[in-house]
């Protein structure tokens, strides 16, 4: 009864506030696309609740461990989760995907093949990140070290990743290799697979050596153009955390005390970037603040980014990472649930009124046997925690919104078909009006 009442209320809101929303039918090919400030899937607005699980490829590379990926996807779908963000990189070091520039570990690639195939089986869309800003799994540091050792490049900073033509060449080759990969399980090239929702240029790009933002801006522009020259099927995002830069100096006061050379507005205005992302870690960024001040920061942070996505960028936005660590001083499950609920409410409120916020992906989903991967932010859906209930409730709310939009679209299709039948029957609309 409670669900019916919520559905009825949402239906009223949709019809009253934005029935003029341009929802049109289209033959569904399964690719997520954008129209204005909204994601679209098969002709209807698309809202998704999701998760991060960086470990999927790494774990699936061992066939005896693939059941953990299957279990994670099963637990995710049982809680209504429909999108996952994960790594499509592992550069150098232990169990690499790319062990040297342009040379790949086929067993690891088959792990990624399996992840995509299994996501497809469970109806989960994927956002695949192509390189890391940090040393974990290689990242820009590994690329720069390769250029030093293999090509004799004199490089003084890991930020030369964004500037040096040899390093950029390594990255370009990786992009081409991943996008053109033939999946050994599905028989579909990655660039043609609708299971993939979007590519991410980099996980949390930062260039502290150039706080002006020009270096990152030029790199995103160049690499976004490259990706789109290979693959026009998929959406593309930059991987940004959301820090404001010099294009909007009045907004920089919202930033935590970090100056990392990115610019939320300028970077996301780049033509080939299809949607914006924002990350939320008040427990890291506002460590010296109490719990209420951290939640106030979170509210202001999301409000600003959702407004800017709608009016300055005119693009959809995803909360691509957020979470609360049990390692925080004074941590309680209640605090984590409160943070999740705050993020989810902001997204739901935006979606309900036709705004640009279309979903969130918490950091991070784990399943049984993955305890060693817990960095403090792990969520075990299979354990039936209160946080799992909060996640499932948000999934259901977004499902109802999608259902309402689908109903509106069906009504409009029915009305158009009826008009067309009458017009055909009576030789056109001679009197300029059609009655119902």
UniProtKB/TrEMBL annotation:
One cellular component term from this protein's GO annotations in UniProt: extracellular region
Pfam entry (one): GH5_mannosidase
Gene Ontology BP term (one): polysaccharide catabolic process
Keywords: Glycosidase, Hydrolase, Secreted, Signal
Keyword Transcription: no
UniProt superkingdom: Eukaryota
Signal sequence, renumbered to the chain: 1-20
Domain Glycoside hydrolase family, residue spans: 31-364
Compartment(s) where it occurs, according to its Swiss-Prot or TrEMBL record: Secreted
Catalytic activity: Random hydrolysis of (1->4)-beta-D-mannosidic linkages in mannans, galactomannans and glucomannans
An example molecular function term from Gene Ontology annotations: mannan endo-1,4-beta-mannosidase activity
Enzyme class: hydrolase
Enzyme Commission code: 3.2.1.78
Primary localization: secreted
Keyword DNA damage among record annotations: no
PANTHER family for this protein: MANNAN ENDO-1,4-BETA-MANNOSIDASE 7, PTHR31451
Family from the record: Belongs to the glycosyl hydrolase 5 (cellulase A) family.
Name of the molecule in the record: mannan endo-1,4-beta-mannosidase
Protein species of origin: Trifolium subterraneum
